[in-house]
Amino acid sequence: MSKSDGLTLVPEASALETWVTDYLDEKRAAGCSRKTLAVYADLLREVLLPYCRRAGLTEPAELTARRLNALSAGLLDGSGTRSGRPLSKASVASYARTINAFLGWLAKQGEAQGARMQKPKLPERVIETLSREDIRALEDAASTERDKLIIRILADTGVRLDELLGLKADSVRLEPGRKWYLKVLGKGDKERMVPIVPGLANRIDRYAKRTRKDSPSDLLFLGSRRSARSGEYEPLTESGTEQMIRELGLDVLQRRVYPHLFRHSFVTEQLRRGMQPTLVAKIVGHTSLAMIDQVYQHLTVTDAHEALMRSLMGDGQRSSG
Are 150 and 245 members of one domain? Predict the structure, then answer.
């Protein structure tokens, strides 16, 4: 069936297409970030719905395990991709997580059978990290106080790149008990307070007051040159920060370094020191322990032993005193 607007015939949306729109609207209303929402929209509208149209599926109840397995298989062998090229297992697993979240939502609405898209089995991945010596060498080699601070904040807080670039000149907070924090705006526009040492708080404050360029922007980190378009020092971009860190990594460590690697390294270091995973998750802004568990997988039994011994020896020292 089609509806006529007097000039053209507009195809009616299938029930599945309508449910995708409703799902995205609900995510948007719940405060989902634009970047995350764009990923959801792209996968559902450019991967799931085209497959459903080819397979003649129009209702959520038609998304059976057999149909979803066919979708997964087509992405893996290339028969179900627009380019005709197969996707990696990691990519298909990522697609499956998003599509399964949508399917779970449909099930809650009473519109689906509860089937799930099969995720390919991935080989166990060892996540590389930066040592404290690596971080110190990168900071020492950075040519400006701005770049040195970027390295240090990423290393000592585990914040995401967009969170770092969203810091403002007044983001440092002193709370009761002489405790210093960075006020960070995270995913879903959720604010959190990230603990920092007094020395870093003082460095950020000095930079904001003395070194930071004059600009109408209240963001902490600005570009090093005036924009040809506006004539102002504009906020530092993600690509500019990534390039700076990449070049430092190649020059100093002869290896690929990227902003998120500091986050992996921070989580790993805190877990190795025996910090509770729930506290680590709170500091880095995870709403569940799932991501922490993924990072924790590459820690060894030796790390667990050392953390336990530190705890037991500490208890013993306190009791003997």
Answer: yes
